[in-house]
């Protein structure tokens, strides 16, 4: 009898509505649907203290984890810059790599999450950032010769000035009407 009563209580509990605000998937370690997750923002869209905090966290990840594991030797074929935080394009690349890392190391990414991160994100990012003609090419190419230089980017596009005048009516002998 006691066993039947316990099963009845379990069935009642399972049939009951979930607690408000709680995740129906909490027991499985999955996020709830209590609202949209915070939107990750590219670091270059951040300003002030938010930018500085994100850059500090990124720098910790790069210095403490990424470089010791994937840093490889600094050469002319794979330059590096100890002042990489001053290279906006490198900051953007590494921040995107870090956000992808956080997503792919999550258990929800599955057992192949990190393999996907290596294949789709790490390899391409490191190749672009440390390319011989990449954004760090004017910086350190040998640990014995530290260097830092930010190369100038291209000038702004040469666009014709915007005009606010109406186009001339065609010379057809007909009255010209503006249409909205």
- Measured between the Cα atoms of the first and last residue, the distance is 82 Å
Q: Could you spell the SSE succession in H and E letters? A: HHHH
Assign a percent range to the helix content.
Answer: 40-55%
* Radius of gyration using CA atoms only: 28 Å
Average pLDDT, to the nearest integer?
Answer: 82
Uncertain parts = 23-34
Number of E-type strands: 0
Structural class: mainly alpha
- The total count of helices amounts to 4
- Coarse morphology: flat
Biggest pleated-sheet summary: none
Tell me the strand percentage band.
under 5%
Would you mind describing this structure in some detail?
The chain is mainly α. Helix content is 40%, strand content 0%. It contains 4 helices and no strands. It has helices spanning 2-15, 48-70, 88-105, 113-129. The chain is flat and about 95 Å long. The chain starts with a helix and ends in a 51-residue tail after the last helix. Mean pLDDT is 82; it is low at 23-34.
């Amino acid at each position: 009898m006691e066993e039947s009563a316990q099963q009845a209580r379990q069935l009642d509990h399972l049939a009951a509505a979930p607690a408000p605000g709680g995740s129906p998937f909490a027991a499985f370690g999955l996020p709830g649907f209590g609202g949209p997750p915070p939107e990750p923002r590219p670091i270059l869209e951040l300003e002030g203290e938010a930018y500085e905090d994100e850059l500090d966290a990124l720098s910790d990840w790069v210095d403490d984890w990424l470089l010791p594991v994937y840093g490889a030797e600094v050469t002319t074929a794979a330059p590096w810059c100890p002042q990489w935080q001053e290279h906006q394009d490198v900051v953007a690349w590494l921040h995107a790599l870090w956000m992808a890392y956080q997503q792919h190391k999550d258990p929800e990414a599955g057992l192949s999450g990190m393999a996907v991160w290596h294949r789709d994100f790490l390899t391409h990012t490191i190749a672009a950032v440390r390319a011989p003609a990449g954004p760090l090419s004017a910086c350190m190419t040998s640990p014995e010769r530290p260097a830092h230089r930010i190369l100038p980017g291209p000038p702004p596009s040469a666009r014709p000035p915007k005009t606010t005048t109406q186009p001339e009516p065609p010379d057809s002998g007909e009255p010209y009407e503006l249409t909205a």
